[in-house]
Amino acid sequence: MEIRLNVKDNLLSDFGIIHIQEFLQRQLQIYELQLSANKISKYLKKSKEVDWEMEFDEAKQKAWDEYQQKFFSKE
Questions:
Q1: 56 partner at 20 to 30 Å CA-CA among 16, 18, 21, 30?
Q2: Which residues have C-beta within 8 Å of that of residue 12, sequence separation ≥ 6?
Q3: Which one has a higher pLDDT value, 59 or 45?
Q4: Residue 3 placed within a domain
Q5: Burial classification of residue 16, based on how many CB atoms lie within 10 Å of its CB (0-12 exposed, 13-18 middle, 19 or more buried)
Q6: Domain ranges, residue 61
Q7: What is the pTM of this model?
Q8: How many domains does the chain fold into?
Q9: Does 1 map to a domain?
Q10: Half-sphere exposure of 22 (CA within 13 A, CB side)
């Protein structure tokens, strides 16, 4: 799909067409990720069989322990 936008000449001259295209493409990718994250979040909230808060806390603690062991162990 193609979208046409009106862009002021000074923006084009200051940033360049390629930069503006890349910026807009990154923004659209971010929005797509946000939509996916929202869908996942809604699904997790509907799922009552698992305590996701506890699962996330345990995963964060495990990652922190591994980080500490890797970078702060005195071996």
A1: 30
A2: 20
A3: 59
A4: no
A5: exposed
A6: 9-72
A7: 0.55
A8: 1
A9: no
A10: 5
